[in-house]
Amino acid sequence: MTHAVPITRLEPSEWPALAAFIHRHNRVGGRIRCLHFDQGETLALHAQELAALQPDEAAFWCVYGTDGIAALIGCELDPALRRAWLRGPLTAGDDDAHLTRPLLERLETELDTLTTFDAFPAQDDEPLNAFYRDAGYRPMGVHRVLQAALAPLADTPLPASHGSVRRATPADLAPLLAVHQALFPSSYLKDSDFERALSAEDRCVLVTNDLAGYLHAKDDPEQDEVYIDYVGVAERARGQGLGHALLTAALAWGRTRGRRQASLTVREDRAAALRLYELAGFRQVSAGAHWRKEVNPTEAPAVPG
Q1: What pTM does this model have?
Q2: What residues does 166 pair with on adjacent strands?
Q3: H or E element at residue 50
Q4: Which candidate, 21, 31, 5, places its Cα nearest to that of 67?
Q5: Both ends of the chain: CA-CA distance in Å?
Q6: What angle is formed at CA 270 by the lines to CA 265 and CA 271, rounded to 5 degrees?
Q7: So what's the pLDDT on residue 223?
Q8: Cα–Cα dist 117/104, whole Å
Q9: Domains of the chain
């Protein structure tokens, strides 16, 4: 495919230098445009996050103008899932909007082994949502980003037992994964991620005593938070307060890490989950519209929303 504008794919060593452009152009009037580009409240945190990305798990393209970067797009990707989570596109000015479609086309062309592309512009960003709609992406619903404040707590380890919840052990891995795979067949966490998390200091894997529920969380010191990736309770065990117990234990772990807050993301059509999180003290801080494009989806396992 021929592009009318010169597009550059950036080397990993160049990624931290993108922080200034992202920090300036992804925040308009205090509003976040692309949720996947929202990495920290300061320029330094943006640079640290970009520096920590692995070369085989991210990619960025840009168009240079006379004053530096004119437009930028990027993604995090998982070759095993053949899936990319898009970042942007962002432009330096309104008159640079014509650069965004060529950038998206270049990204999709160069990542031709992938089959699924997901984007999460802020729900209220009309231009960015219109961009993905016009580019052939289909709406998949709205995801709400929730946060809960964590009160300070002495730096003591989480007890081995926390009511009906405890830290997972290697013996719990097989039944834990069975529940996770049944509830989230398209999870971005692999089985090996859970296995490594069992012994990682900056990860927390919790299970209920009957192994009907689990939670996976990670410590994020750059954001001063713990992020809860997944909370799952088997259908047969719902309505017993297990989800609330898992969240309570996870928040306690966050306090032992000295973090300021806990965060998670949930689809807005999951009313029961939203009620659970609100009961645990979570409140919405933003919302993103989920857009998806699938290329040759029959050649790879389906990735439901």
Answers
A1: 0.73
A2: 161, 207
A3: helix 43-52
A4: 21
A5: 30
A6: 115
A7: 80
A8: 11
A9: 8-143+289-299 (3.40.630.30), 151-259 (3.40.630.30)
